[in-house]
Amino acid sequence: MADLLDRHEAGTVSPIGYPDYTSFSDVGEIDRFAQELGEAERSKAVKIAKGRGRNSEQIAHVRLEDASRLYALLGRRPAGEMAGEATSRLMNGLDLPAELEMAAASLLAAWSRGRSWQGFSLDDVDRLRPAFALAKAILERRHQGIDYRTFSRRIAGDSKALERLEGPVVRLLGSTLELPPNARPRDALRTLGLEKFAPPMLLSGRIDFDTAELSATAPLYFGIPPSEAVRVRFRQKPRYLLTIENFASFNRHVAEADPERAGLTIYVGGYPSLATQEALRSLGAGVPDDVHIFHWSDIDPDGTWIFRTIERAVGKPLMPHLMSAELAEKFGKSPAEAVRPSVASEMSAIAPLVAYLQRDDAKWLEQEELDPVLPQVQ
Hints:
- This protein is an alpha/beta fold.
- It has 3 domains: 2-74, no CATH class; 79-177; 201-369, Dna Topoisomerase Vi A Subunit, Chain: A, domain 2.
- Helix content is 41%, strand content 11%.
- It has 15 helices and 11 strands.
- It has helices at residues 2-9, 27-42, 67-74, 79-91, 98-112, 125-139, 148-156, 161-164, 166-174, 185-190, 247-257, 274-286, 301-314, 325-331, 351-357; strands at 16-17, 46-50, 59-64, 201-204, 207-209, 222-224, 232-234, 241-244, 264-267, 293-296, 318-320.
- Strand 10, helix 13 (301-314) and strand 11 form a beta-alpha-beta unit.
- It is elongated and about 95 Å long.
């Protein structure tokens, strides 16, 4: 009978249960089973249907007739009622922004059907409440300018709360923010500016750093904190500016494709953190307007997400490098997942590749599969 209520809460109309007589250990258990169902039928909670012929005295199936009567008979509270109380306790005093209301509604709907939400059940209210508080604070930009654990401590009262709740926090934010579709939660949070320490930005080219005349020696590359990008100086106009997602591809490009350091090549560290995005904005503003800017990523939904993120950061026209449907068709493979990129702006140079990746037969290609070449500068 509990199973009938479970399926009722999941949305099944007038659920029917079929007894599995092979699971009973003896005749005594069958008799007790029949007595309990008989009591439920007399209370008009269920309707019993008997078999036919020689099985006419045996229960064939049981249909739920009145859920409220069966709840009372079993001493069980409806999931919807408990879900309402749980969500009220969860949201009490949070004053959720409109961006999170859909997630709250989704949570209530799942709990009302007796299901978990993002792995959280009705019993997890106290664990889940900090996730909503953290997501709300991020949407309000209260994380900017402070480190990862200080933010967690100020908002949740626990410096490690965000580490434990990264998954649900990102899923809450994903309903309103454009986050990389396949990124780990921590990588997604980095793109919003939440990280313990910003990784160094690696640059290769004939550039100087404040009074250090690095352009004369042009090392393979050097690293700086992203916040120090404003100190980069151009002694001569670079032939191009190229950002690269993958570390191996970055190393191969600067060593094999541009040993003369004719361009400015930047390793963005995979998903570019907010600090890296700000540095790219500074570097993009520092190069002359006639210097073409390119980006090289994997040919997949995350690659196009990174492209659009860098495009917004540099604030100038950005062109894809070694990122095309033709290369994917020639060298790529069909992905195991069915993740599709979101629609790109028609004004973006990556829009044709996004349209290709939205096809069911699209192939993906990791950039390490390609040998580095210089960007085509007209």
